[in-house]
Fold this sequence. Notes:
Layout: H1 5-22, E1 26-31, H2 39-54, E2 58-63, H3 66-75, E3 82-83, E4 86-87, H4 91-115, E5 120-124, E6 131-135, E7 146-151, H5 154-161, E8 165-169, E9 171-173, E10 179-181, H6 184-195, E11 199-204, E12 222-223, H7 228-234, H8 241-253, E13 258-263, H9 269-274, E14 282-284
Parallel strand pairs: 1-2, 1-11, 2-8, 5-8, 11-13, 12-14
Antiparallel strand pairs: 3-4, 6-7, 9-10, 13-14
Helix pairs in contact: 3-4, 6-8
Amino acid sequence: MDISNSTKAQVLIDALPYLQEYYNKVVVIKYGGNAMINDDLKQAVMSDIVLLSLVGIKVVLVHGGGPEISAMLKQVGKESKFIGGLRYTDKETADIVQMVLAGKINKGLVSLLQRHNGRALGLCGTDGSMLKVQKHQGEVDLGYVGDIVDVDVKPIQDALNCGYIPVVATVATDETGDIYNINADTAAARISAALGAENLILMTDIRGLLRDKDDENSLIPSVNVSEVPFLVKQGILSGGMIPKVECCVEAVRRGVKRAFIIDGRIPHSILIEMFSNEGIGTMFF
């Protein structure tokens, strides 16, 4: 579809208040879901991030990579095991997780951003002791799955101050040097809080928080974090959405201005959320 020059100019003018609002602010994007697998969506996400960076917004990209970890485990003849939605991670699996996340996926994303003329720098939680972890404390032993006990964002800030887009893989070590797998949503929430980010954006494969999980037209556009226990009690918030919403709540309570759950299946969903009044997902404030 051809767009006239005057329409293009009006789009830029309409975006101006949002560009001014976000200029020199930090936005943390947790990248995952179908947008990480579908090549067209992946290209759209990378171009969005480069655009944000070029207009003076400090973007931090945090990623997981569950499907690629599962594929690599299958390739080496090892079965993926999940307990309560979390990957059981023995020592061998932890090594594979580090190889896939901090190696293959992380450097692939850095390369892709640079192909879109962005300047990117790959990091993981171990670099500069960015994320300090301890073994996950829960009712069930998950192996080498870590809980974050401290965040030092200086490596990320140094990268941002030098004009790079930091790309962060969610693996880290404990005080003895053992590698741990970390939930990417949780890591993004803690990193955004430590950076004093303007926004945390979680990309998912659903529209956002739905009043009726079977009706995508029942999107709840905004939620005050104080309303979340009521939504759980009503049954509106349940299942796999609970941990994602909890990450948004934690980020906001730790000082992030707004947190969003958006539909990564829609091309340029990041730009639509940030640069329009209506947005595209659910905002937590």
